[in-house]
Design a protein that fits this description.
The chain has 231 residues and is of the alpha/beta class. The protein folds into 2 domains: 121 residues, Rossmann fold; 89 residues, OB fold (Dihydrolipoamide Acetyltransferase, E2P), CATH 2.40.50. 29% of the residues lie in helices and 35% in strands. Strands 2-1-3-4-5 form a 5-stranded parallel beta sheet, with helices on both faces. The chain is elongated, with a radius of gyration of 21 Å. It starts with a strand and ends with a helix.
Length: 231
């Protein structure tokens, strides 16, 4: 169950969020606030998993309010202006919802939040079926089994999957490799990680993965040969 509150200076916007939450059985909508100061008092007294925060409010912006909180809560920003999504992304928002908010889009955002909470609760114990990375100003959920290979580009990675466009995220190849199941993925080059569950072959220091040819780095060659049972 996700305990949540909403903060918005427009009562109608709060009524809409409360109605949307009532339609989803794993969300417990605790309270709504038109005044951020009252929301802050509530957060100091009661446990909350998720905040719905309007960005444009008269006394303080939702972003500044979120920055002022003593503890980090998951947040979904709501706004009528798409340009605010960039700043929301910088605050590690799970997602942002553009007004007028459609229920289908709301449902998508909270479903991702629910999966992310499960992921956070289990990430220190086992690797689940999904990988969460930040891309295009929001949290992106990727099915690990759908990943074909990952390419490192300086401080970014590009994740290639089946039947969808690549996802680009600001993180190192080392960081993402540590979050993948070791029995399923193999780093073959300083710039490449491959999914070993795919149809792959090895020849002349290259991995053939479908139509894609991936080079094998000298320092990774021994591990690659070991994987393929070669000397």
């Amino acid at each position: 169950m996700i305990n949540c509150i909403a903060v918005d200076d427009e009562p109608l916007a709060l009524d809409l969020l409360a109605d949307y939450c009532s339609r989803i059985d794993y969300i417990d909508f605790k309270k709504s606030f038109t005044k951020p100061s009252e929301a802050a008092d509530y957060l100091n007294k009661f446990p909350v998993d998720l905040l719905f925060l309007d960005i444009q409010m008269p006394d303080i912006s939702g972003i500044d309010f979120y920055k002022s909180l003593k503890t980090n809560k998951l947040v979904i920003f709501t706004t009528a202006f798409a340009e605010y999504a960039v700043e929301g992304f910088n605050q590690n928002a799970v997602d942002y919802l553009l007004k007028p908010i459609m229920f289908s889009r709301f449902e998508q955002a909270v479903a991702k939040t629910y999966d992310y909470i499960i992921y956070l609760n289990h990430k220190n114990h086992e690797v689940g079926n999904n990988l969460f990375v930040r891309s295009e100003y929001k949290l992106c959920k990727i099915a690990i089994s759908e990943i074909r290979y990952i390419e490192g580009l300086d401080n970014y990675v590009r994740i290639f999957m089946e039947n969808s466009k690549p996802v680009i995220s600001h993180m190192s190849l080392k960081a993402i490799y540590e979050r993948l199941p070791g029995n399923m993925f193999l780093r073959v080059h300083r710039s490449f990680i491959i999914n070993c569950n795919r149809d792959i072959s090895y020849c002349n220091r290259n991995i053939q993965l479908g139509e894609k040819q991936i080079p094998v780095g000298i320092s990774y060659e021994e591990n690659v040969k070991k994987y393929f049972g070669l000397k």
